[in-house]
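User: My advisor, Dr. K., asked me to get a structural model of this assembly before our group meeting. I'm new to this, so sorry if the format is off. These are the inputs:
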Amino acid sequence: MLLRYITRRMLIGVIQLFCLVIAVFFLIRLLPADPVSRLVGLNSSPEGYEQAARQLGLDRPLFEQLWIYLGLSPDIAPGLLQGSLGVSWASGSTVGSEIATFLPVTLQLITLAFILAFIISIPVGMLGALNPGKAADKGVFVYSLFAGSQPEFWWGLLFVYVFYFQLGVAPAPLGQLSPMTFPPEPVTGFMLIDTLIAGEPAKFFEALHHLMMPVITLAFILSGPIIKMVRQNMLRALQSDFVLYANLIGLPRKRVARYALRAAMGPSMTLIGILYGFMLSGAVLVESVFSLGGIGQYAIRSVLAFDYPAIQGVVLVITAISLVVYLLLDLIHAAIDPRIAY
Amino acid sequence: MNGDNPLLRVRDLKVGYEVPGDLIVPVEGVSFDLNPHEVVGLIGDAGSGKSTTALALMGLARPPGKILGGSVEFGGRDLLTLPDAEIREIRGRDIGIIVQNPRAALNPMLRVGRQIGFAYRAHNEATEAAARAHAIDMLRLVGINDPERRVEAYAHELSGGMAQRALIAMALSSTPKLLIADEPTSGLDVTIQAQFLDEMWQTVQKTGSAMLLVTQELGVIANFCDRVLVLHKGRIVEDAPVRQFFAEPQHPYSQEVLRFYHERASGYPEQVTGGAGFLRTDALTKHFPLRGSDKVVQAVDKVTISVAKGEAVGLVGESGSGKTTVGRCLMRLEHPTAGAVILDGQDITALNAAEMRKMRSRMQIVFQDPFDSVNPRWTVADILDEPLRVHEGGDKAARRERAVAALKQVDLDPSLMIAKPRDLGASTLQRINIARALICNPDFVVLDEPTSVLAPRARNSLIALLARLQKELGISYLFISHDLTTVRYLCQRVAVMYLGQIVEEGSVEQVFTAPQHPYSRALLSAHLMPDPTNRRVDNPVPAALEGEIPSPIDVPKGCYLASRCPHVTDACRANPQVLTDLGQGRAVRCERVVAGEITLQEAAHD
Amino acid sequence: MPDQVQDLLLDETTYVPPVRKADWLMRIGVSIVTLVIFLALFGPYIGPYDPTRTTIRIAVPPPGLTEIPGLLAGWIGGTLEYPPHWMGTDANGYDIFSRVIAAPRTDLKIALLANILSLITGVFFGLVAGYWRNWGTELLIRVSDVLQSFPVFIMAMVLVALAGRSATNIIIALAFVYTPIYLRLTRAEVLGQTSRGFVEAARAMGNSELSIALRHVLPNSLTPALIQSSVTIGFAILLTAGLSFVGAGVRPPTPEWGLMISTGANQIVLGEWWPSVFPGLAISLTVFGFAVLGNALERRYERG
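Assistant: The format is fine. Below is the predicted structure of the whole assembly, which you can bring to the meeting.
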């Protein structure tokens, strides 16, 4: 039952990704951009231009390009079917390997930000839900609206100004480690894990120190919608008939609280999934403020360079991760709430 | 009537809630006593504060409500001033409660057995295994078959009646001295309701608890209660033994409530002569395909009914019997799978879209939920204007005059023209729905449970209005209802539906005084007549139906009632039953009745 | 009977229109939004400097709090050499105050038009897909699902960067990413409305399907989309600013908040906070205002 459900969802996901690939492929080629002249410069000779176009494969008909990208002509170049995302036009290395170095940075950043946001949001949201209509609740509510509607890159800059320039407690926003530090051998790509594998606790704490500001910035923004969600779901649970009845039948307070908490958790899963997916690309701005070198910055670089294979690769990978996250959270939801049938 | 040593002494109980700039007090000073082992009914309209009072007795109010004052003395202590931990001990241990909408009251994420176990262990020392065993015992006590399996069920897997039983098992698990039952049967089907109340009453007798039974239904009061409290506008206006209450109601409100039942003795509506078959169906069938399966839901199965000009025909049956689908097919809101609907000689299932739209001025429908049936953004004037605009067009001022006249026709004031639905009550809105249905002078109206969401008092006046309008305008009604009392007052003929089929039809008098089909008999005997001199609890309960309605997806091969019928034979299970004409407009779908094998007992009522 | 009926219904026969009070939060929202709209209309003209022209004074910090009264007096008295730079100037010599109040013309215009465009297309397709259910509309929803699974910010960046960095292209890009949201929202609402009694009643009364869809279903399905509008406008402003910040938005010297923050970003590590802080504050308050307004509308809608 469960396995069938997962298989079905995966299948639908693959179809969705396939449609997405096609859509993105045509979309970027329909837009009036000229990647060749971006690469060779506007002043190149017609011969140089043609040569570059040939090198990029842009001299082939559109559908042939798609075929190659999908991996249906493996004799020319490997494509998706062979597990290849193509070769970056800007750097010449494979898109897959580039994403593999950039993606862990982003995943590490937003996962930590989510954890921190939850640690803040759950008690704060509960505080609001347990005192509906009182000053504490109003404060919680206004905070959640405020935090949820802020320009995160600006807050990142503000934090840099206050904590780096004025107070000097934060490092300069120049990457995952200080520019003077020699990074550890990348094994997983996650800096925090790689430093530990390399057995260099000093670098681990340095990385943590550098992650502090971006994580706080993102967690601040994330705390808005999460607090709002915790407060709303908890309020709804506390006002539900079955919590009222649990009180009427004389269950101890602790038990009633557990009833409400479990009821509030289920519906939160969907929103968490959406937020996580959103953050995968939404972290772009914070990454660039702190020069972290995540997938978002890779996307910016690729977009500004008209690097089509890289753009396609980034969109594909981010969407695929979002779909997997949605699936995982749906499974957790179903485990919490027996009413959700596969 | 108050004993010297009451179990519960309520004085001046007040519950209210704040809205910006105002304090609303739905319960403003309720006082009464409850004696040990007594069954007391608390009756009142929707919004009279019944449920709020019931909760306040346990020291709780639904947010944003608050208990503002008064005392609830139980065992020498005022429950309203007890600290939280102590009142939690009393709740569930000394006072148990069951509420309406039982499925929502059960935790949807926990198995029923565990929940009963938690309730039991909150008040008794017990291991988890012992609590589970106790839960099974309690479920068996409240009449649940196969309790070992049911303890593993989740709330959403239970039917309404089953969930209410689980709730009462929880409420009685610690053998409380008092059980508060807050409209425990609202939303349950008639046969299930009677069965449930019987079982609840018996269980309470066994556990020796007193009971406060909150309800809107006089039938429930008359059949199960010893004493009645009448709650009106937040106060107890009458407190009397049940017989005295029915014989000589004191307060004007009580008199108003009981009037309809006193008037009812005047006899059955007169039979209509001539104009037979003005509207009729011919083997009307409706199947709904099931998604992802080649099976179908057989909602309506070859239903043939006919309504004469100026006649009201009742269509009764429990939920899932297909009666609403019949009404929708008649209006062609649902396209029948097979069969014909003939109005005044014309088969409306054969009309094209434009012809059908024109035809709609001659036939109308009034739905169950008055709030849902009107566009919430429109004013009453817009609502009443719509049918005129569609069918007649013409001058706006003239149409407005027609709308005002239509309002007056349903006894409403023309000042309502500018009101919007959200500012009106259910009974007013239902009158507006009726006015809208009648404004184009239709020949035929489907009334799809028009009174089911109304309070009994409003229900009575609406039925009286419908009867009056029919007499004045000579319209034909198909009156769909599960409430037999209203059918008896309004209709000349009645058809009883079960699982998509008509099982019996005849004049109201024939069917109500001498029902023949086992299902009709069960339905009528389950009907709680508001007659305290012939109480259900004092008489042996007539043969009830077992179990619940089978699924309309896999209908039985033979008689559809076979799995529940007390008179079932092997032949019944094997042979499909046919509706057999008995003469005098009567027909019944039961071989054994036709063969005279089931002795006819006079129905218990009338 | 009628007289008793009148009696029973007495409390309902006279109609008093209900009074609705605006709460303080709503007032804050309305004030902020009104101010931003005012600046969008007149902002470029009322600043002391031309927002698109540099001055000779580069990276001047804003006046300290104590200097303000003197400057104000001098400004009114006309004794100053040049109008004061209330928020200082940036590294290129632009007057920050004039640019901050001129920027709503760009930001709000983009956000508003993108929102209207996506609202209209989304509601239209949502109504069609929700009311007429067949394989065609099913396909429509699938397409919308695929569009919605795009990573929003990256897609907007791709569209603008490849199509050319102009306000029009930003509007189209934003409308493109927001349309599926409206489609889905409206469709869900329409699905809920079509099974309601008044739609059935309208059908039983002989209305045509088109008339039911337009007169009954559409007006009753619009509210969630309109409430979402307020939120979407706010997020569109954030997105517009974000695009400028990474260099995929409007081109300088257009006064635009995100672009201004981006210009000041390099200086902030050196302690020059004002070129970034003031425009950021403007975004922060504006988007908060729209969020508050949207929320107030939502609560009012839920209350009925």
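One thing worth pointing out at the meeting: Residues 37 and 210 of chain B are 4 Å apart (CA to CA).

User: Perfect, thanks a lot.
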